[in-house]
Amino acid sequence: MVEKQENSQSELFSSDENSGLYKPHVPKSSVFLRMRGYEKVLLLIMGLVLCSIISFSLGVEKGRSLGWAKNNNSSGFGYTIQVATFKNKQLALRQVQSLLKEGLTPMVFAKGDYIVLCVGKFSNQESAQPLLIQLQRTYAGCRIRRL
Predict the structure, then answer these.
(1) Rounded distance between C-alpha atoms, residue 129 and residue 143, angstroms
(2) End-to-end CA distance of the chain, in Å?
(3) Tens-digit pLDDT profile for residues 18-63
(4) CA-CA to 127 of 20 to 30 Å: which in 27, 47, 49, 109?
């Protein structure tokens, strides 16, 4: 009697794939695991080449911007006299007008929240010294600085 139950059990759960009663779930493997060895190597080489091209182009762009900044200051004038720094734009414009009346060439540029007022363009610090002494009578904190 035990043997009959084993036969009936095996008939219910047959291992025949065509019967349609039981289909085991086969997990799908990832694309990377299905690839062949040489395909993985080629994919890795293509990725490295792409990364190299991108990093090279970014380096070229950074080099161009640095080269422009160096060429911009190479006009022969590397120094100026910083006269004052303002937070109020109106005060800075009044000082520019008074410096223009004295016959000087003021320059104004923004640095963060402040407006920096400078006078003159000089090739070296020694050529800026006489004007610095003259401006220190009016503006106590003026100094020579690089452009």
Answers:
(1) 9
(2) 106
(3) 555 556 666 677 766 777 888 888 889 999 999 999 998 888 777 6
(4) 109
The answer to whether 136 and 142 have CB atoms below 8 angstroms apart is yes
Give the containing element (helix H, strand E) for 12: helix 2-12
DSSP secondary structure code for residue 81 in this structure: E
> Cβ contacts of residue 132 below 8 Å, gap of 6+?
81, 142, 143, 144
Q: Report the alpha-carbon distance of residue 147 to residue 144 in Å, rounded.
A: 10
DSSP designation for 140: T
Mean pLDDT score of the chain, rounded to an integer? Answer: 79
Region for 24 from its dihedrals, namely left if φ exceeds 0, alpha if ψ lies in -120 to 50, beta otherwise: beta
One-letter identity of residue 92: A
The domains of the chain are located at: 31-72, 79-146
Longest dimension (CA), the chain: 124
CATH number of 79-146: 3.30.70.1070
